[in-house]
Design goal:
This protein has about 210 residues and is of the alpha+beta class. It is about 40% helix and about 25% strand. The protein contains 8 helices and 8 strands; from the N terminus they run E-E-H-H-E-E-H-H-H-H-E-H-E-H-E-E. Helix 1 packs across helix 2 and helix 2 crosses helix 3. The longest helix has 18 residues.
Length: about 210
């Protein structure tokens, strides 16, 4: 995928394993939803290296002068990605985040179970497997359209791969994220409870 100009100073491109640390730092510092941020940048760095290397997943980054200002992580099948990550990276990744994992075992199991159970049966039937997992913009880089542009680039990459429908899940109270997703063509599809007691909303792009 060729670089897409954002302005005279910015570009968006597919991320590589070399971008994993920067993506992990963005995730841990800018996203407070879900369980993964509690595991820290080291764990997330391994996850993002796997996403960048995995054939069925990809990392999209916005870059200026070699610095990553925003990222989006995406996968064609979250359940498969988790299985590959656990098989190839799980032991080392878990060793570096053992205490947070032990303190929050129920949330760990909810996270791993999520790809196979989401909402009511009718809702599940309309949710595609492909998903935009996380979108984060560095503090100080918001308000210039970078989040929208990295979403547009991620949608284009899914389309290039022949994926015609994919979802994104966020807190039902995250107004900024919901506005971003809706503005790029996602539609509200199902209310979910990925973690007990926390209401989330799944939005879907493309045909259901």
């Amino acid at each position: 995928m060729s670089e897409q100009p954002m302005s005279s100073d910015y570009s968006i491109r597919l991320g590589t394993s070399n971008d994993a640390v920067a993506a992990a730092l963005l995730h841990s510092s800018r996203i407070n939803e879900g369980f993964l941020p509690t595991l820290g940048p080291r764990f997330l760095g391994r996850l993002y290296r796997r996403i960048a290397r995995d054939q069925g997943s990809f990392l999209m980054v916005a870059e200026k002068d070699g610095e990553i200002l925003a990222m989006a992580s995406c996968t064609e099948n979250l359940g498969r990605l988790y299985r590959v990550f656990i098989l190839r990276d799980g032991v080392i990744a878990a060793a570096g985040a053992l205490l947070p994992i032990l303190r929050s075992l129920p949330r760990v199991f909810e996270t791993l179970k999520y790809p196979s159970q989401s909402g009511s049966e009718p809702a599940k039937a309309h949710l595609p497997e492909a998903e935009i997992l996380a979108v984060a913009v560095r503090e100080g880089s918001s308000g210039i359209g970078i989040g929208r542009q990295i979403m547009v680039a991620s949608i284009a990459e899914f389309t290039r791969r022949g994926v015609t429908s994919f979802k994104v899940v966020t807190s039902s109270e995250n107004a900024a994220a919901l506005a971003l997703y809706r503005s790029t063509g996602f539609r509200d599809t199902a209310a979910l409870e990925v973690h007990e007691g926390t209401e989330s909303l799944a939005l879907v792009w493309g045909a259901s």
